[in-house]
UniProtKB/TrEMBL annotation:
Residues 98-131 form the Zn(2)-C6 fungal-type domain. GO terms for molecular function: DNA binding; DNA-binding transcription factor activity, RNA polymerase II-specific; zinc ion binding. SMART domains: Fungal_trans (SM00906), GAL4 (SM00066). This is Zn(2)-C6 fungal-type domain-containing protein. The keyword Isomerase does not apply. SUPFAM superfamilies: Zn2/Cys6 DNA-binding domain. Pfam families: Fungal_trans, Zn_clus. Gene3D superfamilies: Zn(2)-C6 fungal-type DNA-binding domain. The keyword Cytoplasm does not apply. Keywords: DNA-binding, Metal-binding, Nucleus, Transcription, Transcription regulation, Zinc. InterPro entries: Amide_Lactam_Regulators (IPR052073), XnlR_reg_dom (IPR007219), Zn2-C6_fun-type_DNA-bd_sf (IPR036864), Zn2Cys6_DnaBD (IPR001138). One of its GO terms (biological process) is DNA-templated transcription. It comes from the Eukaryota. The lineage of its organism: Eukaryota, Fungi, Dikarya, Ascomycota, Pezizomycotina.
Amino acid sequence: MDSPSCRFTFDVPFPSPLIASDLLSGQYLDIEAIPSLPELDSLEPADTASGHRDTVGAGSPHRVQIQTDGLHNSNEKPAVTSSGTISQKRKRQRSKIACRPCHNRRVRCDAASEGVPCSNCRRSHASECVFIDSKRTRGTQGRFVRHASDPRLVLAQSSSVDRGSSSSHDSNGHLLLDNTSDHIISDLLDRSPDTPQAFQFTSVEQPCPPLESGQIVFVGEASPLTWLARNQVPDKAFHRPIVGRHVSGVEEHSTALSATADSVSHMNSLQSLLLDAFCARFLPLYPIIAGTKLLHDWSRGTIPPLLKYSVLFIGALHTAAEAFEQLGAYSKADALDAIYYKAKQIYDSDTEADRICLIQSMFMLQFRFGSEPCYKNSLWWSSNAVSLAQTVGLHRSTRHVALPLEDKRLWKKIWWVLFIRDRQISSGTGKPMMIDERDCDVEDLTTEDFVDGESVETAYFTISLVQIARIINEVVRYKYSPAASVNPLREDIKANIHCTLQTWQAELTPIMRYCTISNRNRFALILGLVYNQTLLLLHRPSLADAKKPPSQRDFTTALAFHAAGRISDYAKEILQYFTVNEFPIYAGMIVYSAMALHSAESVPSEDEGERNQQQRRSEIYNSCVLEFENMYQILRMYKLYFGKTVDIGKS
């Protein structure tokens, strides 16, 4: 146990639900250290002077160029006969780009040059090797255009006009959008990390747009954005339309991206930097790879290509953008896209036979949060990693399986990391939990399983996360599942979960307790974030109750705000003593969830001292969430789902 002088102020155990007066008296909360926030600030960056944001300057020598092949021209006008009637020319056949199997797998097709069947279909014995039709035409200036009525392109025409984008209309009055200005189309989602930004998150009274069956995503009750949107949408409106471009796939940019990825992998200094970032910042938090074997295979050049590029992708994700600039290499945005698509290309080629390697790679690729609403997104990778792990049998005991001991240890660690991540996703986005412990009999992790290069901190950290993930399971099951709406959470069950959570916190080993004097380490800080996030989920009030002044809040609402206040304190610690690339992505989302709760405090306090505290808290939230977004750019994905109902605007 820590001595009282060493204990961090907001790590004092929460009071029992039966003793509300202790909390309300203020003895558990350092008010001076916890400013408040009247409005939730979002991550919509400020516009540049040109009216749009581009992650890489147009003149950048390292900008990835997306190549397009113009095989036909749509500028030809119909011939006019002597009688004044227009004789329509026969419509030219659309250009052929790739066969359908290659297009569906997103791999390069040589059918146009070599004939059908293409080499990929011959190797895979595909039954049908037929061309697909290109959906593009050329505009009046010879550039590729797309009709605004294209169902794959969802864009309000007025937004293009308001932003000053160049547009034209065809003879039928359709708005033509220039492909060279696609960054204007995706202005809502692109961002410039170099632009000074300030944020404001406000609710807008807009009806939910009509849903298309193929363009829907589910965001459940646990998501803080679902909670915020409750006063704009019906109580059960969890199916969200995807806002943005509905592009079925990337057709012709694989050559440029592959060249960039290959250049990155052959730059020894950059490759070493990314590998070091992976081993120092990601692997200790997610021990899904045996570190000693990874370094051994890497040095010998025997690491599988899919695993190699997945590791490089994570390393690039956890590396500051300035590091790329100092090496004179590609920008971070270009490198991330190139390495990700290279790994995806290898995965789609179906050449990797090692299923453990596939699970490890899919787990890492889930941390790519792109601005395009592709179906093969973060949740696709994570769910398929779980599915393949269950196919292999990682969820079952290997006690009687003839595997080397090191492989048994690795299997256990992979499975329990998948379990932890499954609960993180469910509690953060409201997705159903994919793993049911009733189907599993794999042994619990012990410190003896962490002897393959892992630190003691990693061992205790992972074991503690497994324990609290089981508690999160109960919170989500009893409060945020469909059954919870039929059978509301009983107060005795809620109190039992609360006490179980307090017991977990009290039994943490000393090195896993954050202390501002003697134990300021990121593992303990992350556990503190997860602990308070779970308390916030358990006691999160309705939006109407959250808007009540502090003097009118009931005990459970006060507990939720108490947990959010401690999360803001941890955010302050991150800003002062750490860098955000040392933390996992979900740490930023925890800060964001506390930010969402405090956004309900829309009326500033009448007391001047409390108003100053609210302002300081606002600054902490702004700075911390912005740092996480600059590093990981995760909120772009959420803006696809909530951009219409919960407006993310600029202050």
